[in-house]
Amino acid sequence: MKARVLVQREESCLLPYDRNNVFARILRGELPCQKVYEDQFALAFHDIHPLAPVHVLVIPKGEYVSNADFSANAPAQLIVGFWRAVGAIARQLGLEEQGYRLVANHGPNGGQLVFHFHVHLFGGRQMSHRMGNMPRPDDK
Ligand code: 5GP
């Protein structure tokens, strides 16, 4: 495992990166995914439990636990490449005109379940203004 200084926080959600997390295994091709986009910086695929007509996960090609880790420790080229990919994916999916929502969960309070940094891209319907909550399955 890579040695890396993580952002200092009092909570214990800054775990070391687990190379066997499900997204790491998807990146290595050990598990299947419904791919929508790939370049040198990012991979995007449909969420297995979609919460909107379009629910895509975008992950960087690197071992980062969460946004805290990615934003503090990833090289600038990867951060730029990743966010350009997020924009390109939304465009490719035809979401720019009607709009979309981006969500990144961090740690227990953020509801993070998979500890490889990822951004949820939701689209295809009007999102609720309940900003503190993820869309519910019956919002579909
Ligand atoms: P988090 O709460 O960590 O932000 O969300 C993790 C997301 O990953 C969830 O929306 C969950 O449905 C999705 N997910 C978990 N396992 C898999 C998987 O094996 N394949 C895909 N495509 N999505 C997954």
Written account of the structure:
There is one protein chain. Mean pLDDT is 89; it is low at 5-12. The chain is an alpha+beta fold. The termini are far apart. It has a domain at 37-127: HIT family, subunit A. The chain has four helices and five strands, in the order αβββααβαβ. It has helices spanning 22-27, 67-73, 76-92, 107-110, and strands at 35-38, 42-46, 54-60, 100-103, 119-123. It binds guanosine-5'-monophosphate. Guanosine-5'-monophosphate (5GP) is lined by residues 22, 31, 33, 45-49, 57, 105, 111-114. Guanosine-5'-monophosphate binds next to strand 2.
What is the straight-line distance between the termini? 39 Å
Compute the number of helices: 4
- Helices and strands: which structural class? alpha+beta
The helix content, as a percent range, equals 10-25%
The small molecules bound here are:
guanosine-5'-monophosphate
Side-by-side strand order of the widest sheet: 1-2-3-5-4
The tally of strands reads 5
CATH class of the domain at 37-127: Alpha Beta
For the report, how would you describe the main beta sheet?
Answer: 5 strands, antiparallel
**Average of the residue pLDDT scores:** 89
